[in-house]
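Database export, one record per block. Field names are fixed; values are copied verbatim from the stored entry.
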Amino acid sequence: MTAQARRGGPIVARYALLLAGVTGLSWAGIFYSLAHAPPIAMVAYRSLFAAVLILPLVLIGRWSGSRDTAARFGGRDIALSTIAGALFAADLTLWAVGIRFTTVSSAMLMVSTDPIWIALFSALFFAERPRPLAIVGIAVAVCGTAIVAGMDLRVSGTALLGDGLALAAALVETWYLLLGRRVRMRVDAPRYATIVYAACAACMWIAMFASGTSPAVSLHDLGFALLLALVVTVGGHTLISHSLGLMPATVVGVAILAQPPIAALLAYLFLHQTIPLTTAVGGLVALMGLGIVAYANELKSPGIEAGAI
């Protein structure tokens, strides 16, 4: 088997799928802004719908008879996928609660530290050490996100609490991506995603009832929960999970930083919201950083394993 086949086919196709996944994630803000139900209820229904909608992809994969779908999905992988699903639920909850105490910009800046933690923990625990050029790319991408955020940091008790929750969300998402990387190196994306979405749904429904939030929502909100499940979760997150099997988690983490400028572009096209200059400039800088990391990931160096960046 060629090196290209081992790494998931043509370079353009791999990064196009990753970009499509990030674009799917970027629709979340629009759908949530058009819904009226409490965020925790929307996430609970979104997760439940996603766990059902992913099943046809699992069946198609089984019928195709590909090598990935034939791989054994052992107890350890199921356990790691379940933990990843719980972390996914915690990530969504921490972010939703955090932005109630601080500005979206500040929270975005805290979450943008994600690639730094991924690179650090990948090196410490999984021997995926980033090349110096990749570290430069990570720094550029984080700076781009900081520009998008406008460095709008507030120093007060509640703001610091919100920033802390957003930073916790970044750490939780880091381990969600790292665990996904471990499982995806052995198991196909649809089977992995099915366990993740089911575990996330279970956690969110428990959290909804524990918080006293009513599960009664309108058909309008159910429609947007379905769109969130179909476009953001099954479309966006499943493609992200697919990419985790083809490239290091650090590359995927940096790619997710392209979400704010893509979301701003979608809001401009569909909600007629203006794009701030800081978002345009910062988005271009973040995409430049992603390009540097992607280039570093594709460099071939003697003695370096495939997948190290």
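Remark 1: Confidence is low (pLDDT under 50) at residues 1-6, 301-308.
Remark 2: The CA atoms of residues 204 and 249 lie 25 Å apart.
End of record.
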